[in-house]
Write a structure and sequence with these properties.
The structure holds 2 protein chains of 2 kinds.
Chain A (H helix, E strand, L loop, with lengths): L6 H6 L9 H6 L7 E2 L2 E2 L1 E2 L10 H14 L9 H21 L7 E4 L2 H16 L5 E5 L8 H10 L2 E5 L9 H7 L4 E7 L11 H10 L3 E5 L11 H4 L3 E5 L10 E5 L1 H6 L10 E4 L4 E3 L13 H17 L1 H19 L5 E4 L8 E6 L4 H10 L2 E2 L1 E3 L4 H7 L4 E5 L6 H18 L1
Parallel strand pairs in A: 3-15, 5-6, 5-7, 7-8, 8-9
Antiparallel strand pairs in A: 1-2, 4-10, 9-10, 11-12, 13-14, 14-17, 16-17
Chain B lengths: L1 H6 L2 H8 L12 E7 L4 E10 L2 E10 L2 H14 L4 H15 L28 H16 L5 E2 L2
Parallel strand pairs in B: 1-4
Antiparallel strand pairs in B: 1-2, 2-3
Classes of the chains: A alpha/beta, B alpha+beta.
Chain lengths: 423, 150
């Protein structure tokens, strides 16, 4: 089994990786030069959303200033150009995912909508009374609630695969949950709260052996490692543009053609139809069948620009840079008294989730903000995971390709200020 | 830093570290639960009410420094007051923490609770400060459903 799509591979793959020139990368992101509360912005909330490079911002501006038109069916020049750009962005997603077919790539509002699409459509077609959906304890609410809604409708049930104390999926327990009633396994590729990178290849092998399909929530993975769906072996893969240096409100779902073909349309409206009469409507072919209504055209084109940008830097260089940052930050935070890292799975991504003795994460967040350091605090939309970890919330610093060791130092200094303020 | 000191005043840090009236009341005490789903703060308020008088107030729960100190100082402030007086405190407290920056109302009548006047500069923390008060109101009314800040 080729182990593509994990952080190790990005390294193992590596012919010598050209080091990422972080100062040059930073110059591509206009927002990074601003200050916050009089201090240079240290943006470490990348797992919530990433900043946008000038290439993406310019693409959006150019589209609205010079290219705005509705896509498909237009005979005028602007419409044709917009259609070409929109479809070019689809090819970008196909390339990113190494997807076999272009028409397997469906634009959505983001990962959440993609999961909802699969839950509603795949669910309606393939999940029935007594069937089972397998999730893991580390799932984001977006990969829990759509399945609960489906289960309520059809009488299916959710099984939850446990994690160990490091935050790694317990593969033996996962395997034990699979049976002939399992219709789908829906699992996060990279945990937003812990940074755990799941072994999607192995999960797919086990699930497929049990006759189940696999959906992967790739929202958090795509900025860090190439989400190669052929190498992973999954059946559905979802991603969000805004976590990949693209606009908000746009994302994509990839699904296997043979499944998407059998799935009923999800939303009805324009573009997803072939013929409409009041008696009967026939539906368009893929991917239009799942893209009802005028889509977020600018967003899709912006996502295309973001993918071009990521490819111009290259995943091996990104992975090596982020590995350096997470190693550096993990070592540095170890010297801060009373700090405990939550999520220590081997090979985890550049997410540093932590708690501080006798200081609530919310207070950490406010004090770091006063130093210009943006982190996220709370349950990270993973309440079941927080319960499993026995904490109400954590503070989370998450690193991206434009972060630096100097910023990690500023973050660690700001943690010192937390002690100073809170006593 | 000056804003931070305004927010985390000594009295707030003190109540965070050593919350007063922490614990539960049993028997005929009124009780209500509140939670802030955004940050996971949870609180239970217990009240011993006799006629119109709040004889005792206690709380249990976990939360940030602001929410814990707010609950602690609130229980001190409402003991021995009438329901009507407490409603007045609630209104005054609410106006203080939700004031537009630079538009702080007169907070003298709030006594020690005026320590929370820095909260209005931190809009993300208003719910932390007010959770206990909303839950208190629910306890007075003996509301059956938990209070949520969302």
């Amino acid at each position: 089994m080729a182990m593509v799509g994990t952080r190790e591979d990005a390294r193992a793959d590596a012919r010598p990786v050209a080091a990422l020139d972080v100062e040059r990368v930073r110059a591509d992101f206009p927002i990074l030069s601003r200050t916050v509360r009089g201090k240079p912005l240290v943006y470490l909330d990348n797992a919530a959303t990433t900043q946008k490079p000038r290439a993406v911002i310019d693409t959006l501006r150019r589209y609205y200033e010079d290219g705005n038109a509705n896509i498909h069916r237009g005979v005028h020049l602007l419409s044709q150009t917009a259609t070409e750009q929109y479809e070019r962005a689809r090819r970008g997603v196909q390339r990113l995912l190494n997807a076999p077919h272009l028409h397997e790539v469906i634009f959505t509002r983001g990962t959440t909508e993609a999961v909802n699409l699969v839950a509603a459509s795949f669910g309606r077609r393939f999940v029935g009374q007594g069937d089972e959906i397998v999730l893991t304890e580390m799932e984001h609410h977006s990969n829990i609630v759509p399945w609960q809604m489906l289960c309520e409708q059809v009488g299916a049930r959710i099984r939850v695969a446990p994690i160990d104390d490091r935050g790694a999926l317990r593969m033996d327990a996962f395997e034990a949950l699979l049976n002939e009633r399992t219709r789908l396994v829906s699992v996060v590729h990279v945990s937003n709260a812990l940074g755990t990178v799941n072994s999607i290849g192995r999960i797919c092998e086990l699930a497929h052996a049990a006759g189940a399909k696999v959906m992967v929530d790739g929202a958090q993975a795509a900025p860090h490692l190439r989400p190669d769906v052929r190498a992973l072996g999954c059946d559905f893969y979802a991603l969000s543009g805004h976590k990949l240096f693209g606009p908000t409100g746009i994302g994509a779902l990839w699904g296997r053609e043979e499944l998407l073909d059998q799935m009923p349309p999800w939303q009805g409206g324009g573009d997803m139809i072939e013929q409409v009469s009041f008696e009967r409507t026939t539906y368009n072919t893929l991917p239009a069948k799942f893209e009802a209504g005028t889509p977020h055209i600018a967003g899709a084109i912006g996502l295309g620009a973001a993918i071009d940008y990521v490819e111009s830097i290259g995943y091996p260089a990104i992975a090596a840079h982020e590995q350096d940052l997470i190693d550096y930050a993990t070592a540095a935070i170890g010297d801060v008294p009373g700090v405990r890292i939550t999520g220590t799975a081997p090979g985890k991504a550049s997410v540093l989730s932590f708690v501080m003795e006798s200081v609530h994460p919310h207070d950490i967040g406010t004090i770091l903000d006063s130093e210009g350091v943006a982190v996220r605090t709370g349950h990270h939309c993973c309440q079941p995971l927080m319960r499993r970890l026995g904490v109400p919330a954590t503070a989370r610093a998450s690193f991206a390709l434009y972060n630096t060791r100097v910023e990690v130092d500023a973050f660690i200094r700001a943690l010192g200020k937390v002690r100073e303020v809170m006593g | 830093m000056s804003d931070l000191r305004e927010l985390y005043q000594e009295i707030i840090l003190d109540h965070n570290k050593q919350p007063r009236n922490f614990g539960r009341l049993t028997g005929s005490a009124r009780r209500a639960e509140g939670h802030n789903p955004l940050c996971g703060d949870q609180i239970t308020i217990y009240l011993q009410v006799s006629g119109d008088l709040i004889e005792d107030a206690r709380f249990e729960g976990a939360g940030c420094a602001i929410s814990k100190a707010s609950a602690s100082m609130m229980t001190e402030a409402v003991r021995g007051r009438t329901v009507c007086e407490v409603e007045g405190l609630f209104q005054g407290f609410h106006q203080m923490v939700t004031a537009e920056p630079g538009m702080l109302p007169d907070v003298d009548k709030l006594g020690k609770l005026a320590a929370f006047s820095g909260v209005c500069e931190f809009p993300a923390r208003v719910k932390c400060a007010s959770l206990a008060w909303h839950t208190l109101r629910a306890a007075i009314e003996q509301a059956k459903t938990p209070v949520s800040t969302e």
